[in-house]
Fold this sequence. Notes:
Layout: H1 2-31, H2 33-61, H3 65-87, H4 89-118, H5 125-144, H6 149-182
Helix pairs in contact: 1-2, 1-6, 2-3, 2-4, 2-6, 3-4, 4-5, 4-6
Amino acid sequence: MRNFVSVRESSSGWSIFFGILLVVAGFASIALPFFAGIAASIFFGWLILLAGVSHLVYAWFERGAGAVIWQILIGLVYIGAAVVMLLLPLTAVVALTLVLGWYIAIEGVFEVVLFSRLRRVPGAGWLLFDGIVSLVLAGLIFLHWPSSSFWVLGTLVGISLVFSGIARLTMPMARRRIATAAA
């Protein structure tokens, strides 16, 4: 039992450490959104490159000429996109911002539609609120695109990091409060 408790306390300490690190990184991203956007673009470029290589490796194990050709073509498209993102990160930031704007707009439409179907359910108003906020945010991105590209991506990444860090901080702290109250 003692080992289990010490492992849990150790993981809580690491969770708090990483939570603080995420909050600091989030505020740095919000303070320097241009650089955070470039970093996010490069990160996604490497992920897409890995996906492209994975498709090429998978093609090696695929049976049937048609399936192999498709896997190779998909892998080459991924690798081509990754190379562009890694060599031209500013262009990638502009493109990612446009994709993000469309994603937020479509999500906003879906939230409003979902609200219209669930409007009688308690708390459904939050769906409408979320949908409207998403549509306004998407509108702001589109209205100011491409110049918005240099602050939107980094700012949203920063906000996400801050909230992830807060979640990592609050969970172990709540566990400690419960453990202290129970003792």
